[in-house]
Structures are given as structure tokens and as C-alpha cells.
UniProtKB/TrEMBL annotation:
It comes from the Bacteria. This is Dihydrodipicolinate synthase family protein. InterPro entries: Aldolase_TIM (IPR013785), DapA-like (IPR002220). Belongs to the DapA family. Coiled coil: none annotated. Keywords: Lyase.
Length: 310
């Protein structure tokens, strides 16, 4: 990955998780407290509206209120922030983008239109339109494994070559072959890999950082772990092995065996970490993992991943 990056964005990014009340409402006072805690944790940046931020379950008024709160707090203290203008409908995305750009985030993340899978040309047309509306704010394409169209590195590189305002991508990584293809086709983009693979992504010379599920578990711990990758990548890879084992053993079965969503898993991680007033509840109609499960796993996490809770 020797080519010059389009943008210097990098590091350990914490997602906003929505505190949801018993009546399915967003608890804005708790959200404000959560933002303060993340700022105090000293993460590299805070972002809104990935899957874990439940962008798919917000009215436009709620979207505006969440983004304004994030922008105001981060701007006050000089914390980097990224807004997710993600929405399956391309028109709603453009409207969210237009309003998000006014808040002057470091970047805005978008997904591809998501119901009928887009062709390459449709993806390019969409991204070019999004870049125009973003009015100079750079874009990050969020292309998770559950997207309707999941792009291989070569496809992603070709599509983003046509939209220079896209400066990064948030993707699931893969095997050695995936990393080789990423080095070949994506060297200009800042790539964000899943939190629990960040040390591998850095060791492979591919990842700029992560929009991180490890940060859901422990914002401070994930920040220290990320910093440690510059000092001792071997030790960081050792911790990554244990993080992956923890995820495989204690977290992923909630999705694979019991059918919970990824957002439910991220909120479980946050409740296990117990660092803020978030809880495990998701917005209707999605099912939430019981808080008692988080309570049961708190000691397990602190024993198996003690470095993250030091
Ligand atoms: N995929 C996640 C990563 C955070 O946990 C997201 O929703 O951004």
C-alpha cells in the first residue's frame, strides 16, 4: 500500500449506540452522557449511524437531533466526528447528506442504495451524486457483508476511482487473498476493517483503522490496543487472537444460533463493557438480548481480555 491516500483519516472510531427507553423512544439525555464518556475516553473519533447506530430505525427529525448533538459536542472540544447519512433509499440519503454536510464532520459515511442490488454504473452514479451533495465533505463507503451488493476489492477500487470524493471504505476483511487484492486495488483509500481484526489489518499494511466493535466493548481499551499496534504489533496480534476467541465463543452464537442482529450484538458488547448508559434494547421490531446476558458475561470479559479493562 504505497500509493498516497486520498485522506489522512485513520484510527480507532467509536460508534454512537442509541439508548432506547421502554416505550421505544430514543433517550437523548443518556445519548448526551454517552458522547461525553466517549470524548473522555480519548478515542480517535466518534461516528454515528452505522448498523450499530440503528440508522435504519430513525425518523428524519430524530436523525437531525442525533447528528446535531454529536456535532455540537465534538466541535466544542475538538473531537473528530463522522456522520452516517446511511439510508437504503438514495433520495433520503441525499437529503441526509445535505443536512449532515452543514455540520462540518470530518467525513460522512454512506451505504449503496439497498433493496435491488446496484450495478457498477448505478453505484458510480449514486456515489457521484452523493459527492456533489456533500459539498466538499469527503465520503466513506460503508459496505458490510449484509449489504445487498458486497464489493470485492477490485470492484470497490474501480467504482471509487470514478468518484474521487470517496476517500475511504468500511468493509469486512477476508483471507490472505483478500488482503493481497486490497493492496493491489485499494491503496488510495483509507480502509476500515472490523474492530476485532484491526491488528491483522495493520500488520497486512492495509487498514487505516476501524469503526470498531471492540470500541463498543471498551472505548479506552480499544484506544490503547490501537496505539499499541505502533509499538508492538506482535503483542497486539496476540490480544486480537483472544478478542476473536471471545467473540466466537460468547458473542457470535447470539447471531448464528439465536438470530439476533449485528446491532443487538454490538449493544451486548457495550452492556458487557458497562461504560455508559446505553443498555441492550433495540428499536422495534428488532429483538434485544436480555441485560442479564451482559451481566453474566462481564466477569468473563474482564478475565479473558483483562488488558481492555485495565
Ligand atoms: N459494523 C459496526 C461496527 C461497530 O460496531 C457499525 O455499525 O458501524
Amino acid at each position: 500500500m504505497t500509493a498516497k491516500k486520498r485522506h489522512a483519516i485513520a484510527g480507532n472510531w467509536a460508534t454512537l449506540l442509541l439508548p432506547i427507553g421502554v416505550g421505544d423512544e430514543i433517550e437523548f439525555a443518556k445519548l448526551s452522557e454517552e458522547i461525553d464518556i466517549l470524548i473522555a475516553a480519548g478515542v480517535d473519533g466518534i461516528y454515528s449511524n452505522g448498523t450499530a447506530g440503528e440508522f435504519h430505525s430513525q425518523t428524519e427529525a430524530e436523525f437531525d437531533r442525533i447528528q446535531s448533538m454529536l456535532a455540537e459536542r465534538c466541535t466544542e472540544v475538538g473531537m473528530n466526528f463522522v456522520i452516517g447519512a446511511c439510508q437504503p433509499d438514495a433520495r433520503i440519503t441525499l437529503e441526509r447528506l445535505r443536512r449532515a454536510a452543514l455540520l462540518k464532520p470530518l467525513a460522512i459515511q454512506v451505504i449503496l442504495p439497498d433493496w435491488w442490488p446496484v450495478t457498477d454504473q448505478e453505484a458510480i452514479d449514486f456515489l457521484k451524486g452523493a459527492v456533489d451533495v456533500a459539498n466538499g465533505v469527503p465520503l466513506i463507503l460503508y459496505n458490510p457483508p449484509h449489504a445487498k451488493r458486497v464489493l470485492a476489492p477490485e470492484e470497490l477500487g474501480r467504482i471509487c476511482a470514478a468518484a474521487p470524493g470517496v476517500i475511504g471504505a468500511k468493509v469486512a476483511d477476508g483471507d490472505k487473498q483478500w488482503y493481497a487484492e486490497a493492496r493491489q486495488h485499494l491503496s488510495e483509500l483509507s480502509l476500515f476493517v472490523p474492530g476485532h481484526h484491526l491488528a491483522t489489518g495493520i500488520a497486512e499494511g492495509v487498514a487505516a483503522g476501524s469503526f470498531s466493535n471492540v470500541c463498543c466493548l471498551s472505548p479506552r481499551g480499544a484506544q490503547m490496543w490501537t496505539a499499541s499496534m505502533q509499538e508492538d504489533i506482535h503483542a497486539a496480534l496476540g490480544l486480537e487472537c483472544r478478542i476473536c476467541k471471545f467473540m466466537e465463543t460468547h458473542i457470535v452464537p447470539y447471531r448464528q444460533r439465536l438470530g439476533y442482529s449485528n446491532a443487538a450484538l454490538d449493544k451486548l458488547l457495550c452492556a458487557i463493557g458497562n461504560w455508559g448508559p446505553v443498555g441492550t434494547r433495540l428499536r422495534w421490531p428488532y429483538r434485544s438480548i436480555e441485560m442479564s446476558e451482559a451481566e453474566r458475561l462481564r466477569d468473563v470479559a474482564r478475565i479473558e481480555l483483562s488488558e481492555l479493562f485495565g
